[in-house]
Amino acid sequence: MNKTILVIGASGGIGSQVVKDLVSQGYSVIGTYSNSPIENPDMQSIHLDFLSKESIQNFVDEVKSMDIHLYGIVNCAGIVEYEDQSIEEDIEVWNKTIAVNLTSNYILARHFKDTIVEKGRFIMISSTDAMYGGSITASYAASKAGINSLEK
Question: Could you say which residues of the chain have pLDDT below 70?
Fold first, then answer.
């Protein structure tokens, strides 16, 4: 098959399952992690922290230096933190959540739009919270609703 898929957030629950499924179907996988390197001999792992401009640029440079054509990107990176603290803490949670859950998709699309092959895919993971919201997870719900809009 020799089709390469970039799995963002491959170290998380959804991401690690996506990696397993893709590898079992014969895809080549490049996966990202933000904290601990991924120990998986079936894929290449690269560090990526969407809260760091330097990390994002290093990641983009590394992937582009591979001179590959991506068949797809699956962005599984996501966080949820609870609000209902002080306004300052809630704004901090809001900014971090929007950066990781929503802005990451925009960044990936901008950097790799010419790298994905024709008829390739870019899959962004959303949530039912996008439609229902949450009293102490407003940033998470808004970020997922933003993903739905961005995909359109």
Answer: 1
If phi over 0 gives left and psi between -120 and 50 gives alpha, with beta otherwise, what is residue 67? left
Q: What is this structure's pTM?
A: 0.92
Tell me how far apart the alpha carbons of residues 108 and 114 are, in angstroms, rounded to a whole number.
11
Measured from the Cβ of residue 149, the count of other Cβ atoms closer than 10 Å reads: 10
Residue 152 confidence (pLDDT)? 85
Q: What does each C-alpha distance from 71 to 48, 65, 112 come to in angstroms?
A: 20, 16, 11
Give pLDDT tens digits for 96-126.
999 999 999 999 999 999 889 999 999 999 9
Residues for the chain: how many in total?
152
In one letter, which amino acid is 9? G
Q: Is 5 within 8 Å of 72 (Cβ atoms)? A: yes
Cα dist from 66 to 52, 70, 102, whole Å: 22, 10, 26
Q: Which alpha helices (DSSP H) does the chain contain, by range?
A: 13-24, 53-65, 87-98, 104-112, 129-132, 138-151
